C-alpha cells in the first residue's frame, strides 16, 4: 500500500499574470538575487558551465571542419591575398557552424537552464543534471531552430531586432521543459510576457551584455562568473514571470525531515 501524500504548489508567477503583467519585477532585485545564487552555487555550478562550453566548442569545430575541411582556413579572411569569393565562403561556413552548434547543443543548454531555475527555487544541483535537458531534445531543438531563423530574418531588417528577439525568446526553453508547452507557443508566450515587463528585463540583460564585454577585455577569465550569473538571471526571471510548479510528497517518514520530499516537474530533489 502506498501511503504517499502529494501536494502541489507554485513558486513565483503563473502564465496568466505573466501575460497580463500584473506582478512586480524589479531589475535590482533580479540582479541581487542572481549574484547571491551565483556565489552560493559557484563550486557546483561552474564546472557544469565549463562542460557546456567545451561541448559547444567541440560541436562548432566539427561543424566547421565539415564545411572547410581545415578549420584553420578561417584565418585566411585576414590575409590580404584572400579574394572576396573565398572570404564569403568562409563567412558562410562559420555562420552554418554557429547555427549547427546552437541547435545540436540545445538540450545541454536546456539542462543548464533547468539547473539555474532549480537554484532559484531552492534546489541544489550536480554536474550530471545537465543531462536533464535530453528528455526534451526534439522540442527544444525545434524551438532553437525556429528562434534562430526568426532572429536571422529580423537581423537582416535591423540588427537591433535580432538582439531584441533573443531577449524576448529567453523564457521559451524553460516553458518547454517546465510547463511542457509546444515550441512555437513557447516562443509566443515568452515574447508576450517579456513585452509586458520590457524595461526591467532589458535592464537585467543589458547588464549581462556589459559584463560579457568587460570579461572579454580580460581575456574571458571573468566568464567563469558571468555565465553562471547569466543563467541565474534567466532562472529568476522565468520563476517570477511564469512560476515553477513544485510538489511536496509526504512519505510518512520520521523527523528530521518529517518524511517530506519536494520536487519539481523537471528536477528531482
Show the helix and strand layout:
Layout (H helix, E strand, L loop, with lengths): L4 E7 L3 H6 L6 H14 L1 H27 L15 H21 L1 H15 L16 H21 L1 H10 L3 H8 L3 H14 L1 H20 L5 H20 L1 E7 L9 E5 L5
Antiparallel strand pairs: 1-2, 2-3
Keywords: Membrane, Transmembrane, Transmembrane helix
Protein name: Proline and glycine rich transmembrane protein gene in bax
Question: Largest sheet, if any?
Answer: 3 strands, antiparallel
Number of domains: 1
Instruction: Give the ordered list of helices and strands.
Output: EHHHHHHHHHHHEE
Could you list the spans in which at least 5 consecutive residues all have pLDDT below 50?
Answer: none
Total strands: the figure is 3
Fraction of residues in H or I helices: 55-70%
Strand order of the largest sheet: 1-2-3
DSSP helical segment count:
11
Mean pLDDT reading: 87
Class computed from helices, strands and strand pairing: mainly alpha
* Shape assignment: globular
How far apart the termini lie comes to 23 Å
User: Into which percentage range does the β-strand content fall?
Assistant: 5-15%
Rg is 20 Å
Keywords: Membrane, Transmembrane, Transmembrane helix
Protein name: Proline and glycine rich transmembrane protein gene in bax
Transmembrane segments: 42-64, 99-118, 130-150, 156-177, 198-231
Organism: Vibrio rumoiensis 1S-45
Structural summary, described in words:
This protein has 269 residues and is mainly α. The protein has one domain (5-264). Helices cover 65% and strands 7% of the residues. It is built from eleven helices and three strands, in the order βαααααααααααββ. It has helices spanning 15-20, 27-40, 42-68, 84-104, 106-120, 137-157, 159-168, 172-179, 183-196, 198-217, 223-242; strands at 5-11, 244-250, 260-264. Strands 1-2-3 form a three-stranded antiparallel sheet. The radius of gyration is 20 Å and the shape is globular. The two termini are 23 Å apart. The mean pLDDT is 87. It comes from Vibrio rumoiensis 1S-45. Keywords: Membrane, Transmembrane, Transmembrane helix. This is Proline and glycine rich transmembrane protein gene in bax. The chain crosses the membrane at residues 42-64, 99-118, 130-150, 156-177, 198-231.
Amino acid at each position: 500500500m502506498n501511503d504517499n501524500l502529494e501536494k502541489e504548489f507554485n513558486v513565483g508567477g503563473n502564465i496568466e499574470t505573466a501575460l497580463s503583467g500584473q506582478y512586480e519585477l524589479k531589475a535590482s532585485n533580479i540582479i541581487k538575487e542572481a549574484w547571491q545564487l551565483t556565489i552560493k552555487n559557484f563550486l557546483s555550478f561552474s564546472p557544469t558551465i565549463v562542460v557546456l562550453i567545451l561541448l559547444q566548442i567541440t560541436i562548432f569545430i566539427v561543424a566547421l571542419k565539415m564545411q572547410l575541411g581545415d578549420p584553420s582556413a578561417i584565418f585566411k579572411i585576414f590575409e590580404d591575398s584572400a579574394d572576396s569569393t573565398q572570404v564569403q565562403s568562409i563567412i558562410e561556413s562559420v555562420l552554418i557552424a554557429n547555427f549547427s552548434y546552437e541547435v545540436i547543443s540545445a538540450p545541454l543548454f536546456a539542462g543548464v537552464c533547468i539547473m539555474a531555475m532549480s537554484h532559484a527555487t531552492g534546489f541544489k544541483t550536480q554536474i550530471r543534471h545537465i543531462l536533464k535537458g535530453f528528455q526534451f531534445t526534439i522540442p527544444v531543438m525545434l524551438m532553437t531552430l525556429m528562434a534562430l531563423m526568426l532572429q536571422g530574418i529580423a537581423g537582416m531588417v535591423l540588427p537591433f531586432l535580432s538582439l531584441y528577439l533573443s531577449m524576448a525568446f529567453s523564457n521559451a526553453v524553460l516553458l518547454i521543459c517546465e510547463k511542457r508547452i509546444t515550441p512555437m507557443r513557447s516562443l509566443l508566450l515568452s515574447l508576450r510576457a517579456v513585452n509586458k515587463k520590457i524595461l526591467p528585463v532589458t535592464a537585467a540583460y543589458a547588464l549581462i551584455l556589459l559584463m560579457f564585454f568587460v570579461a572579454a577585455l580580460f581575456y574571458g577569465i571573468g566568464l567563469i562568473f558571468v555565465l553562471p550569473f547569466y543563467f541565474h538571471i534567466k532562472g529568476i526571471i522565468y520563476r517570477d514571470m511564469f512560476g515553477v510548479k513544485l510538489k511536496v510528497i509526504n512519505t510518512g517518514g520520521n523527523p528530521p525531515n518529517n518524511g517530506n520530499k519536494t520536487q519539481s516537474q523537471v528536477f528531482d530533489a
